[in-house]
């Protein structure tokens, strides 16, 4: 599946999920996805590529204000690109689109520098996880800076 198709699918899923009632507590699968995402952020902070090798699809893409990054480029940049001091994830919303596809949205506070630029203090992220062979893996990550209040 090409990047545009993945992006279009994720955008459609995110659009369809807007306004749907969300249960106050995370489901068992939702809690598992949140734990995976937190582990991914910890691996990013620690510049540890192992989590990304094991928990992302070969066709995964990361989208932010700097552009689109594929898995090979991300793994190449991970050891040196960013210096992250701290992060905090909050405001989780888990939408189960199918038994094997989950969309996770959340906000993140972060303190760090990537490619010589200070990271936005707060972002909103959307992540698509799919279940393959009984394992949840990330297939798309997209973020946008939150407007300052």
Description:
With 149 residues, the chain is an alpha+beta fold. The protein has a single domain, classed as Nuclear Transport Factor 2, Chain: A, CATH 3.10.450.50. The protein contains four helices and seven strands; from the N terminus they run αααββαβββββ. It starts with a helix and ends with a strand.
Instruction: Describe the main β-sheet briefly.
Output: 7 strands, mixed
Low-pLDDT regions:
3-24
Class computed from helices, strands and strand pairing: alpha+beta
Domain count: 1
Order of helices and strands: HHHEEHEEEEE
What's a concise summary of this model?
The chain has 149 residues and is of the alpha+beta class. The protein is 34% helix and 46% strand. The protein has one domain (3-145): Nuclear Transport Factor 2, Chain: A (Roll).
SSE blueprint:
Layout: H1 3-17, H2 28-45, H3 50-55, E1 56-64, E2 67-70, H4 71-81, E3 82-98, E4 101-114, E5 117-118, E6 122-132, E7 135-145
Parallel strand pairs: 1-7
Antiparallel strand pairs: 1-2, 3-4, 4-5, 4-6, 6-7
Main features:
single chain, alpha+beta, Nuclear Transport Factor 2, Chain: A, seven-stranded mixed beta sheet, 7 strands, 34% helix
């Amino acid at each position: 599946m090409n990047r545009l198709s993945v992006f279009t699918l994720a955008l459609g899923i995110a659009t369809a999920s807007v306004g749907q009632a969300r249960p106050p507590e995370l489901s068992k699968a939702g809690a598992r996805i949140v734990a995976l995402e937190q582990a991914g952020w910890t691996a990013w902070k620690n510049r540890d590529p192992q989590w990304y090798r094991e928990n992302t699809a070969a066709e995964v893409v990361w989208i932010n204000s700097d552009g689109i990054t594929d898995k090979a480029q991300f793994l190449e940049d991970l050891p040196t690109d960013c210096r992250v001091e701290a992060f905090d994830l909050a405001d989780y919303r888990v939408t189960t689109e199918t038994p094997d596809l989950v969309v996770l949205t959340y906000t993140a506070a972060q303190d760090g520098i990537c490619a010589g630029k200070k990271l936005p203090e707060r972002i909103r992220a959307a992540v698509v996880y799919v279940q393959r062979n009984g394992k949840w893996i990330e297939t798309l990550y997209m973020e946008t800076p939150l407007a300052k209040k």
